[in-house]
TrEMBL record:
Gene3D superfamilies: CobW-like, C-terminal domain, P-loop containing nucleotide triphosphate hydrolases. It catalyses: GTP + H2O = GDP + phosphate + H(+). Transmembrane segments: none annotated. This is Cobalamin biosynthesis protein CobW. One of its GO terms (cellular component) is cytoplasm. GO terms for biological process: cobalamin biosynthetic process. Keywords: Chaperone, Hydrolase, Nucleotide-binding. InterPro entries: CobW, CobW-likC_sf, CobW-like_C, CobW/HypB/UreG_nucleotide-bd, P-loop_NTPase, Zinc-reg_GTPase_activator. PANTHER family: COBW DOMAIN-CONTAINING PROTEIN, COBW-RELATED. Belongs to the SIMIBI class G3E GTPase family. ZNG1 subfamily. The keyword Heme does not apply. It comes from the Bacteria.
Amino acid sequence: MSKVPTTVVTGFLGAGKTTLIRHLLQNARGRRLALVINEFGDVGVDGELVKGCNDEACPEDDIVELANGCICCTVADDFLPTMQKLLDRPNPPDHIIIETSGLALPKPLVKAFQWPDIRTRATVDGVVALIDADAVAAGRFATDEAALAAARAADPNLDHDSPLEELFEDQLACADMVVLNKTDLVDTATLARVEAQVEAETRAGVKIVRADHGAVDVGALLGITAAAEDSLDARPSHHDGEGGDHDHDDFDSFVVTGGEVGEVEALTARLGALIAAHDILRVKGMVAVNGKQSRLIVQAVGPRIQHFYDRAWMPAEIRRTQLVVIGQKGLDRSVIASDLRDILG
Ligand SMILES: Nc1nc2c(ncn2[C@@H]2O[C@H](COP(=O)(O)OP(=O)(O)OP(=O)(O)O)[C@@H](O)[C@H]2O)c(=O)[nH]1
């Protein structure tokens, strides 16, 4: 029996995983895909965006959302039963795509493919790591030695390096292919510098592909045939000594819910100020705008904020605003939430 190839898409918060997957769905060339989407925040924004594609390659029934925590920590409870259900179908998909949360370690997930019931029926075709070239260039994943020293002084039990740097290294060390995304945001010399930095963290022979909005050749993306579950030892992780376990105590996430927004510009200005003041890593969600039929999607990755109307609110939906906010541990939840609620109505 041939195994169902599975692609694990990893990459830090906002690197462009959902954007790449949307590109993939639109260029599936007759493949029937199933999608497993994992999010760190409690609101399934990525699932909403992908379902919004209404794509033949991946009807809604083939999209599974795992929004209650990071997939690498809930492998046995959530991920394995999800895979079993997909593989038990009378007509299993041609290819499975897994979008991990931006804070997930890919290795525990790949390890799950050694589970006897999965191993005989599915294989990891490849781990694809998305890199935000702009964020790397801005030094987001480099260790801020002063900040680390301060964190160590405040918490003598702190036993690891910068959590962002660790994730960056773990995700790259597990990759079979790296997509250097957001090339439109950096100049050629910066891109070359970032590429060299990324190459230093990847295993020998791993291909690095440059991309703008995740537009990668789908044939190259699906068909790596790495059988990654057979070469786990070659994929070092900062968490190897802990049986692959890690927790997400280094990060905080919460949802701010509100009513309708009057002025979109006022909302984005407030968001921009909050992101800068609190070093927020990621904001995303759906916004109800006064007098507008359509819902507004808001996305912020570091200081960069984007928004667009994706579709009309459905009659059964409550017109409300839900924003997921993610940052490093110590995020001032009450100040941020009350400041945002001020503007959410
Ligand atoms: N300028 C630019 N923006 C991009 C590119 N790729 C993605 N984006 C934008 O970056 C933001 C985050 O993209 P997503 O695809 O949602 O990122 P993600 O990795 O799925 O995010 P999380 O699931 O929250 O980790 C969105 O506003 C995208 O439109 C790119 O190549 N260039």
